[in-house]
Amino acid sequence: MDEPKEMAGDAMQQRLEAYCRRAFPDRPGARVRNLARAGAGWETEIYAFDLEDGRREGLIARLYPGDGASAKAAHEYRSMRQLYDSGYPVPRVLALEGDGSPLGRPFILMERIDGEILWPLLMGATGEERRRLLTLFCDLFLRLHRLDWRPFAGEAARRHEQDRPTYAFVDAWLGEARAAVARFSLPGFERLVDWLQERRDLLPCPEPAVVHWDFHPFNILLRADG
């Protein structure tokens, strides 16, 4: 399936503005200002802009290309909302659009966090300041893993409770791995999945935890207020 072409800046701004007025009916005169592509994340295109109607709000639009884009957008939206509702420091998500999106691709809107990437701050710090930043990083990691995992798991939480010692999440991962090997024609990896399958009983998961899969200082923004 061909990828939709990237929308020109003026068209993007007009459609985004029209969408925001529909999505936020209390802001019928809102205007999109300072729209700029802010780079690309993992499987996403990221746009920053200001929504103005007497007050200014910095927002981010994350667009999802490729196969399964709508499911990816929905998964991130649900996960981010649950993290935010759990008190974990993530941007507040505001809207989700799947297939048929007015921007040509599924996307989510979220608040824009004004801050600095942690990695260069950490590398440039010394002594007590470096220890403080490392402690902040580790505390965030621990807080994530200590969250109640059940609201994130959906149906898998029920299966987990029915299967003790539980292998629900291990079996789900093995199934995803086999499907990926077949989908991307990676026959050399079949032996690896077989090896893991044979040792499946060594890996019960009595207490699951929420995981990020890409937790590192480049993925953390440090605001001026800490």
Total strands: the figure is: 7
Structural class by SSE content: alpha+beta
Question: Biggest sheet: strands side by side, in what order?
Answer: 1-2-3-5-4
Sequence of secondary-structure elements: HEEEHEEEHHHHHHE
Main sheet properties: 5 strands, antiparallel
Separation of the first and last Cα atoms: 44 Å
Low-confidence spans: none
Describe this structure in words.
With 226 residues, this protein is an alpha+beta fold. The strands form two sheets. A five-stranded antiparallel β-sheet has the order 1-2-3-5-4, with helices on both faces. Strands 6-7 form a two-stranded antiparallel sheet. The chain has eight helices and seven strands; from the N terminus they run αβββαβββααααααβ.
What key phrases describe this protein's structure?
single chain; 8 helices; five-stranded antiparallel β-sheet; 19% strand; 226 residues
Please give the structural blueprint:
Layout: H1 9-23, E1 31-41, E2 44-52, E3 56-63, H2 69-85, E4 93-97, E5 107-111, E6 115-117, H3 118-124, H4 127-146, H5 150-153, H6 155-162, H7 168-183, H8 190-198, E7 221-223
Question: How do you describe this structure in short?
Answer:
The protein has helices at 9-23, 69-85, 118-124, 127-146, 150-153, 155-162, 168-183, 190-198, and strands at residues 31-41, 44-52, 56-63, 93-97, 107-111, 115-117, 221-223.
